[in-house]
Design a protein that fits this description.
318 residues; alpha/beta; TIM Barrel; five-stranded mixed β-sheet; 16 helices; binds flavin mononucleotide
């Protein structure tokens, strides 16, 4: 893989996208590349980056550029980090561990999705940098509390709560690629959609040698074990987080991760026994919500949204 992404094969992100399209089965590629409904928001989110231009300052000596920043108490070498991407293990064997390792080597942080295919413990062990845990309340509050406790014990330094998945988006590419049928475990329904996998033998070999269809080892359902892949859409819809949950969640409070929580800030840093809240928010898409958040968070606001993956939505908040 690393030779495939060496220069000059890969010079920019468009090159990486092209390689991914060649390597992955359609349903897997479209999961990363696609958006909800007619993908208006996806296109708009890409377009607005073209409006950003730099204003260079010339005739200025820059002996050493210092790109280091501090985010949620973590010192990063770069002003960027790897956000949570669910099911990364579908893209590449032990994908979350590979991404966390690369983030650590680059001196930046990695946020592990609740919906990851690798165990919290293994992801932490893979990275030399800070790791954060992104929380969905899939499986219910007890399941989330246990995962938070595990994350905290192994050394995840922040909890990032995602609040924008109250409904599943209509992802049209998934419908065309037969994602639902492929997850049905019914061979007759799956059959018409299997050729896309046979057309990608290298991916298929890696997928099978990595254990096949991943489960979610960090969503451990009582009496059942890790949540299965097929159950994810329904579980997400039942895991809505409200501002009330964020302000006082007795279950999460038990393990100390969401105590001290009057200000309603959904990103929290584990800080010894006393949990310090930090001013970061994920998934704020609407102006009014940002307003509430700004009032709550009082000072600096970091804003990010699920982007167009899950819903058509308003323009990127400026
Ligand atoms: C394939 C894919 C999976 C994602 N999975 C998650 C997830 O599990 N949890 C989460 O909070 N955000 C998830 N996101 C959202 C990203 O973390 C990020 O917020 C979003 O893509 C917007 O950033 P971007 O404009 O750099 O893509 C996912 C995004 C993509 C494209």
């Amino acid at each position: 893989m690393s030779r495939a992404v060496d220069s000059p094969r890969v010079v920019n992100i468009g090159d990486l996208r092209r390689l991914a399209e060649r390597r992955l089965p359609r349903a897997v590629f479209d999961y990363i590349d696609g958006g909800a409904d007619a993908e208006l928001t996806l296109r708009e989110n890409c377009r607005v980056f073209d409006e950003v231009t730099f204003r260079p300052r010339n005739a200025v000596a820059v002996p050493r550029c210092d790109l280091r920043v501090s985010v949620l108490g973590a010192r990063l070498e770069l002003p960027l980090l790897l956000g949570p991407v669910g099911s990364s293990r579908m893209f590449y064997p032990r994908g979350e561990e590979a991404a966390a390792r690369a983030a650590g080597a680059a001196g930046t942080a990695y946020a592990l999705s609740t919906l990851s295919g690798c165990r919290l413990e293994d992801v932490k062990a893979a990275s030399s940098g800070p790791v954060w845990y992104q929380l969905y309340l899939v499986g219910g509050r007890e399941v989330a509390t246990a995962a938070i406790q595990r994350a905290r014990t192994v050394g995840f330094s922040a909890l990032v709560v995602t609040i924008d998945t109250a409904v599943s988006g209509l992802r049209e590419r998934d419908v065309r690629n037969g994602t639902k049928e492929l997850l049905s475990r019914n061979p007759c329904m799956m059959l018409p959609f299997l050729t896309q996998f046979l057309a990608r033998p290298r991916w298929l070999a890696g997928f099978l040698s990595d254990g096949g269809l991943m489960a979610f080892p960090n969503v451990v359902l009582p009496g059942e074990g890790p949540m299965s892949y097929a159950d994810v859409a329904a579980a997400l819809e039942q895991s809505t987080v409200s501002w009330a949950d964020l302000r006082s969640n007795p279950d999460c409070g038990k393990c100390g991760a969401m105590t001290d929580y009057d200000s309603g800030r959904p990103a929290i840093r584990f800080d010894n026994e006393r949990v310090r809240t930090e001013k970061a928010l994920r998934r704020l898409m609407q102006h009014e919500m940002c307003h509430v958040a700004v009032i709550d968070a009082a000072t600096k606001l970091r804003q990010d949204s699920h982007g167009p993956l899950w819903q058509e939505c308003m323009k990127r908040f400026e």
